[in-house]
Amino acid sequence: EVQLVESGGGLVQDGGSLRLSCAASGYSYCRYDLMWYRQTPGSKVYEFVSGIDPDGSTSYADSVKGRFAISRDNAKSMMYLQMNNLKPEDTAMYSCKSRGRGGARCEYEYWGQGTQVTVSS
After folding, report:
1. Would you call 2 exposed, middle or buried from its count of C-beta atoms within 10 A (0-12, 13-18, 19+)?
2. What confidence score (pLDDT) does residue 28 get?
3. Which residues, 6 or more positions from 107, have their beta carbon under 8 angstroms from its beta carbon?
4. 3-state secondary structure of 67
5. How many CA atoms within 13 Å lie on the side-chain side of 104?
6. Closest by alpha carbon to 9, among 83, 59, 77, 68?
């Protein structure tokens, strides 16, 4: 069974930095995309933040371009999100999501439990 576990959230001041991590386990032969989403307090919407494919191609939401950097270490089954110049509007629960590739046996999506990021002004 695929599991995703996030870590690295916390409280930081406006302009500060945090590095989030997502540990993926349970993928035996499927390649998979990894993404970060966030959900603000009181919202039911998950906002796309950033994504990275198995070969390292990345994408970002306009709101975080130039401030956040996503990366992955396939050998360690890890994904990271370096967040710099954080703003109060970045305050949210950040969740890791995976999406398998390579046919019907792989094309499932999984979510982690999330890690809270709070940016104080």
Report:
1. middle
2. 81
3. 99, 100, 101
4. coil
5. 0
6. 83
